[in-house]
Write a structure and sequence with these properties.
Length: about 475
């Protein structure tokens, strides 16, 4: 047995056969081509709708205050005519459950519709891309600009683009903070540059994220950072509507002249123009099949339909369909007939039940809440007349939009009474803490804890009343 020394031809060949493998994909900038069509129109309708809602809501007023305000300092959330307190966190929890089941249902039926049309990442990427196109030109112009060396013109175009991006991002951050600090107060602070430290931090933080995510990371957020892209597969099934390429009709693909009989040449309808790839915001080729990077924006459908029109071919080479529909050549009647299936029925039933319960809870949400807390400093004491007194702190919360005057009374023991004031006034959407002295004769109750109830009733509306349980301690 002989060993081949290093440096011999055999050793060199073995060394050359090793290949360096990178664990990370090298990022290539995607220059998205502009596209028009029915789905592009719907995307822009959703962009306008969501942004008018987001930027406009904080400026609307309701009963003399901001219509939508999450006032963390006062621990009150205002949503038009409703006021939510920390005790209403249950409604938020149920709303999150509704959102989760709605996502499951819509994904099972129509795939990633949320991602393609209403996700903030998609919406702001669309806005930033539109700004980029208006300043630097179409896809070819932007690619030439990327490849060109730095020049005064390139610096001016890039600087203009970044400046407009920053302006949009800062206004977005300002509006976001305006949901937590009254936006008119925030505007007055902006005029004199007197933001508080937390307002300053969150405006900068949210602005920076908007700028970086929508301006630079773009498809990387959808591909690598968004968890939905990773677990969507478990919510899909062969009857889920997704964007599909009809391989049977399109293959074999290849360029051709419009006047030639391409079928006689053995070619399919796909002309291999790659416009479907150029318009894709995540840069995938839908002809390779369904991929987790696909956000369901349908830009490739609009682009392919335009090419089919120019070539005189039927539309729908790339279309919304299902795995079963493509394999079994179903039409829309068969596709819609398979929408109702066990998982969709289960999601719909749960979503409907939880939503109805949530709406019922909102509709019957009490406009008065009372918390009774015993004064721990003084459990029980004897006062003038030989009466036994317990002290309580009552937190009276007026959840309505009008000021209220309430009467206080107590029941549960013989000759029990409240010493001092029997009424309390609470402003609209406010709370008031009062100290209440409750007295009874010593023979009215047993030694130890006795159950009593506080009755708090509105003098403005007799139907508004609270019967709150408490305990009265009798000393030995």
């Amino acid at each position: 047995m002989t060993t081949e020394p290093s440096g011999t031809p055999g050793a060199k060949a073995e060394s050359d056969s090793s290949v360096e493998v990178s664990l990370f994909e090298v990022h290539k900038k995607i220059q998205v081509r502009a596209v028009s069509g029915i789905f592009a129109t719907w995307r822009w309708i959703l962009v306008w709708f969501t942004q008018l809602l987001f930027y406009g809501l904080p400026w609307l007023t309701w009963n003399g205050r901001q219509s939508v305000l999450f006032d963390l300092a006062q621990r009150k959330f205002y949503i038009f005519g409703m006021v939510f307190w920390p005790q209403d966190v249950f409604f938020l929890a149920v709303l999150l459950i509704i959102s989760a089941f709605a996502l499951f249902l819509f994904t099972a039926v129509g795939g990633r519709l949320w991602c393609g049309y209403a996700c903030p990442q998609t919406v702001y990427t669309e806005i930033f891309l539109w700004i980029e196109q208006k300043i630097e030109g179409d896809r070819n112009a932007r690619m030439k600009l990327d490849a060109a060396p730095m020049s005064p013109r390139k610096a001016m175009l890039r600087g203009s683009r970044y400046a407009v991006w920053i302006a949009v991002a800062v206004w977005t951050g300002f509006t976001f903070v305006g949901y937590f600090t009254p936006i008119k107060v925030l505007w007055n602070e902006l005029m004199v540059f007197s933001f508080g430290p937390w307002e300053t931090f969150w405006i900068i933080f949210y602005s920076a994220f908007t700028y970086v995510f929508a301006g630079h990371l773009r498809e990387q957020v959808c591909k690598y950072m968004c968890p939905y892209a990773r677990f969507q597969g478990v919510m899909f099934d062969p009857d889920t509507l997704v964007i599909t390429y009809d391989e049977e009709r399109g293959e074999p693909r290849g360029p051709r002249k419009k006047s030639l009989d391409y079928k006689a040449q053995g070619k399919g309808d796909c002309v291999d123009c790659e416009i479907c790839v150029q318009v894709c915001p995540t840069g995938i080729d839908i002809r390779k099949g369904l991929q987790y990077e696909c956000i369901g924006c349908a830009a490739c459908i609009d682009a392919c339909d335009q090419v089919m029109d120019k070539m005189g071919y039927p539309k729908g080479l790339i279309r919304y369909s299902t795995e079963n529909a493509i394999a079994k050549h179903w039409g829309w009647k068969d596709i819609l007939g398979h929408v109702v299936r066990p998982r969709v029925i289960i999601y719909t039933a749960i979503l409907s039940a939880v939503t109805l319960a949530w709406l019922w809870g909102l509709a019957t949400k009490p406009v008065l809440r009372v918390d009774v807390i015993r004064d721990r400093a003084t459990l029980a004491r004897e006062v003038e007349g030989g009466l036994i007194e317990n002290l309580y702190r009552l937190q009276v919360m007026n959840v309505s939009e009008t000021a209220q005057r309430y009467s206080l009374s107590v029941v549960g023991l013989d000759k029990i009474e409240i010493a001092g004031e029997h009424t309390v006034e609470v402003p609209a959407a406010a709370n008031k803490e009062i100290l209440v002295q409750v007295r009874v004769p010593p023979e009215s109750g047993k030694t130890g804890a006795n159950v009593i109830h506080f009755d708090v009733k509105s003098l403005n509306d007799e139907s508004v009343a609270v019967h709150e349980k408490a305990t009265f301690l009798m000393p030995r």
